[in-house]
Automatic annotation (TrEMBL):
Pfam families: Chalcone_3 (PF16036). Residues 1-23 form the signal peptide. It comes from Duganella sacchari. Keywords: Isomerase, Signal. PANTHER family: FATTY-ACID-BINDING PROTEIN 3, CHLOROPLASTIC. Residues 24-192 form the Chalcone isomerase domain. It comes from the Bacteria. Coiled coil: none annotated. This is Chalcone isomerase-like.
Amino acid sequence: MNRRTILHTLMAGALLACLPAFAAVEVAGAKFDDTITLAGQQLKLNGAGLRTKVIFKVYAAGLYLTDKKTTVPEVLAVPGPRRVAITMLREVSSDDFGKAFMDGLNANTSKEELSKILPQIKKFGEVFAQTPALKKGDQLSLDWTPNEGTQCYLNGKKLGELMPDQAFYNAVLRIWLGDKPVDSSLKPALLGEK
């Protein structure tokens, strides 16, 4: 090898060494890291996609699990921590977000199960009543931590209190992954389908 080839090889190696060890998936300008840490465990991006309404991009969402899963029953049965990460792509009033949340829950949860998680649904509604609107660029995350519960964060700041029932978290997941998901193209994206 000549001197120039060796120099180019060394420079390429140095550049690769400087790159971050994780990759990111981009959805409509929103970036989702390939891995995150939650409750001391590494979670993998199961899938990410776009929520649209009519022709408008509403938000990008990513689902993080301890291991990648491709079916709804597998996702709902995952024993470890989980996260749904949402990046808003337009402003949505808390009333509109709350209505969409309730519509998604009602469409994908039996009346019997809804009655069991009603106290947590009310708490969740109170969380969004405190926030007049979700603005473009806001980052919302819904975390499930075993033996603790569901915690909601807006731009890294805790919203409301823990909601302890895993049935509540699974009901929330079915908003996107249920038989009548809020966006039929987002469901397969969150399940990791290309």
